[in-house]
Amino acid sequence: MNQWKLKEIVLMSILGVVFGFIYLAFFGVGKVLYGFFAPFGLADMGYEIIYGIWFIVSVIAAYILRRPGAAFMAEMVAALVEVLAGSTTGPALLISGAIQGLGAELVFAATKWKDYRLRILILSGVGAACLSFPYHFFAGGFDAYENWVVILLFVTRIISAIIITGLLGKFISDQLAKTGVLRGYALGKELQQKKRDEDVV
Amino acid sequence: MVSSINPSVKMIAVVIPGLVLSLAFDVVTPLVFLTFLLLVTFFFSGVRLKKWLMFFIPLSLFALGLAWTSMLHTDEKYAGGDMLVNFWWIEITTGSLQVGVSLALRSMCFIALTLLFALTTDPTKLMLSMMQQLKLPPKLTYGILAGYRFLPLFKHELDLLRQAHQIRGVSRTKGIKGRIERLKRYMIPLLANAIRKSERVANAMESKGFTGSRQRTHYHEIKVKKNDWVFLTSMITALAIAFYLSYTLGYLNIFGKTF
């Protein structure tokens, strides 16, 4: 955190704030889906299908800033903002935020924060899914469900993480870099470097 | 009054019971604790009943969804007891009914805990308290507070974008594809603006001499008082009593094991 520039910290905080509110909005989406699946007794599926959205800020912050800790802290900030805004899940969100952020961060840590290719971003989403599921198993009382239900929920969450967290997360960041606002940050610098190389060729 | 409790202490006092309650799969433990929470909410929080119910009732409906799932697809560990309903594909035993009700009561406890916190806590005070008591770095604290203050601006920008698209006759395509397209058209400019703002704020902070050092003075000092400890202790005591009561009555069930 000490090597971070102030503007990087502020950018991460603002990403956290924006996505904190997006996360809150998706609770609403989840609830609609929840109602859709409820008659089948699979209400939790409603959340699992879109679960990847709740890991996305980790991937975006890490991919843009490329700093150790970015994935974890951005997710924490988003969770904190949800709490500030009065989320219905309350301060317990900080715990799930920490676990999700940690799952995403561990994958980046495994590459020593050097590799930000698509496959790593996807893996990072999967990491968040894998680490967060046991926590929800615990807090949501999934222990009371039959095994096939638990497995179905888990697999759905992983697929959601691959598509929403990995693919959509990278897409949003790349689109942002194209607008030029990220010139002062690692992702924007990389894009500029690439353009310069192409010009030389 | 709960609203005067130190926000950080209140947060801890709400998170701990939330975690510990997740251990119990019986009916009595969450019921006792829920009763306690309702007493605290109605007599010590100053939250109006009508406002509270407006949040509590819709959220509780989802607690029922949870109960329904666990009732229909109960793990063998919990599904014991006599068959109550056996209709088409619906099988409900006393065991699964019990665990369903338990999970519903548990989520009601979570909801009551959350409302106790959310309806009595000021966001700015929570951030300042987290910086002063929980040692959150000032750089992060003020970054988050700045971002939080931008929210009305984001809404304003969204309106501007919508009007700009309208005046230029950007078609509002319907269906899922149109929704994704629209998401991109709004999301990217909004985020880009947010990033620009964050850069400007950071520059402004630095140019006004903000170093982010922890050795700083605070205009709004937030302290931990005796009452805060009383609140924390009573929450944990009530939780312990809930577990103890259900243990002495012979109901306590932790992850499928009856004690």
Can you tell me about this structure?
Chain A: Keywords: Membrane, Transmembrane, Transmembrane helix. Chain A: This is Energy-coupling factor transport system substrate-specific component. Chain A: It holds the Pfam family ABC_cobalt. The complex is a heterodimer of chains A (201) and B (259). Chain A has a single domain (6-200), classed as Arp2/3 complex 21 kDa subunit ARPC3. Chain A has eight helices and no strands. Chain A has 201 residues and is mostly helical. The longest helix of chain A is centred in the last third of the chain and has 33 residues, at 147-179. In chain A, 75% of the residues lie in helices and 0% in strands. With 259 residues, chain B is mainly alpha-helical. Chain B folds into two domains: 2-122 and 223-258, no CATH class; 138-207, no CATH class. Chain B is built from nine helices and four strands; from the N terminus they run αααββααααααββ. Chain B has helices spanning 7-21, 28-44, 49-72, 94-118, 123-132, 138-149, 151-167, 175-207, 226-248; strands at residues 83-87, 90-93, 253-254, 257-258. In chain B, the strands form two sheets. In chain B, strands 1-2 form a two-stranded antiparallel sheet. A two-stranded antiparallel sheet of chain B has the order 3-4. Chain B starts with 6 loop residues before the first helix and ends with a strand. The mean pLDDT of chain B is 85. The interface between A and B is large, with 57 and 72 residues.
Secondary-structure element order of chain B, as H and E?
Answer: HHHEEHHHHHHEE
Give the H and E element order of chain A.
HHHHHHHH
Which percent bin holds the helix content of chain A? over 70%
Query: Can you tell me the residue ranges of chain A where pLDDT is under 50 for at least 5 consecutive residues?
Result: none
Oligomer: heterodimer
Count, helices of chain A? 8
Outline type of chain B: flat
Q: Number of folding domains of chain B? A: 2
Question: What is the general shape of chain A?
Answer: elongated
Number of strands of chain A: 0
Largest sheet of chain B: 2 strands, antiparallel
| Tally of strands of chain B | 4
* Radius of gyration computed on alpha carbons of chain B: 24 Å
Percent of residues in helices of chain B comes to 55-70%
Query: What is the structural class of chain A?
Result: mainly alpha
The total domain count of chain A is 1
Protein name (chain A): Energy-coupling factor transport system substrate-specific component
Pfam families (chain A): ABC_cobalt
Keywords (chain A): Membrane, Transmembrane, Transmembrane helix
Organism (chain A): Piscibacillus halophilus
